[in-house]
Design a protein that fits this description.
Pfam families: TetR_N. The chain is an all-alpha fold. Helix content is about 75%, strand content about 0%.
Amino acid sequence: MRRLEEATGLSRGAIFHHFRDKESLFLALAEDDVLRMTEVVAEQGLVQVMRDLLSTPAGSGGETLNPADWLGTRLEVSRRLRTDPEFRARWAERSEQLTIATRERLLRQREAGNLRDDVDVDVLTGFLELVLEGLVSHLAMGLPADDMDPVLDLVEETVRRHRRTH
């Protein structure tokens, strides 16, 4: 709460004037992250969200995602998904936005001839979401992030259509 007060310039009372409790505030922050991620996915794909997560904020205020803040929110969401059935039900509605954006991006890429056509789009969507969750776990364990670019390159190459030359 102190960080939020400092970041917004609002008092705790002013913040809770807009949110009935910490859970409502947290859910609003998490929803905000999902919306930003959905925008990135729609324009650049889910792998770009992963690249943004790995990048160090430039401090310019123009980053799409603040990796440190996003990771903290994502880890708390993961914890609550495991321990709170009511939260899990409410979160399913919100996270569906990201799945839809990923699927729609993949469909557009397939129509453009850039996506492999031997694997169902829903399977590719699940694959990319699983890689994202694995990356979050990797970062949560404090493992190095500086060697992940080649891994994400491989993920992108895995879903791309390979054109054969004869």
